[in-house]
Amino acid sequence: MCGRYSLFTPREELEERFDATFETSPEPRYNCAPGQRLPVVTNDDPGAFRSLKWGLVPPWADDRKVGSNLINARAETVREKPSFREAFERRRCLVPADGFYEWVQTEGGKQPYRVAFEDDRPFAMAGLWERWKPPQTQTGLGDFAGGGAADAEAETLETFTVVTAEPNELVSDLHGRMSVILAPDEEETWLHGDGDDAAALLDTYPDDEMRAYPVSTRVNSPANDDSSVVEPVER
DNA sequence: CCAGACGTTGTT
DNA sequence: GTCTGG
DNA sequence: CCAGACGTTGTT
DNA sequence: GTCTGG
Known about the structure:
This protein is of the alpha+beta class. It has helices spanning 11-18, 85-90, 148-155, 169-172, 187-192, 195-199; strands at 5-7, 29-32, 37-42, 50-54, 72-74, 92-97, 99-106, 109-117, 123-132, 157-165, 178-179, 181-182, 210-214. It contains six helices and 13 strands.
């Protein structure tokens, strides 16, 4: 999975780590959720953190709501699926994070866990991105050269999805899928390599330096975007 | 040929 | 139950 | 991922 | 746009 993550690493550290710059200082994020605009590094502009909406909308979709389903793409099939094939070949991105959340069903309800590196260092999840324009609405005969083009421009939507694979041993205790984490020396190839080389990176990241711990159910609501949701709680 | 889907997760 | 919004 | 809505008519 | 199902 990966349906929620954190990104509270300070701006300077992120800029140095990814060799990219923010246009404006990002707020520390403890509860990044689908549907939100979040910083990613795209292959066509790797020197910048760009704000894209989480939930990939394929270019041929007739409704932007399609994106709410496509927050993840399976590594095993991403090169074949019509929704992802083109993006995989031409539009890959890095999705910076410093932890992600998993929910485990228990007797008393769902218990959220945070998974992160032991030192909370940031990492890149493998992502794909797209650019979508609303279908041309039927403009009347008198509406050429009007506001239509400007509207479409304004409504152009850039979106991304996170690639998932089998979980490592640590995460497999919590969940059956895990987002693909790229090693730093793999990021260049993910962004700019050919399809075969990029596909070879879609494996499971080892859990040696990772940890998982229960957190408050406050994380359930994306509105609770504060540091309390990364604090360990007793089970 | 046209119509309709195109996806993931988890759960049953 | 299912869909939308965050 | 979870939370929260899920509808219409008419009136202000 | 492209693929699958009828």
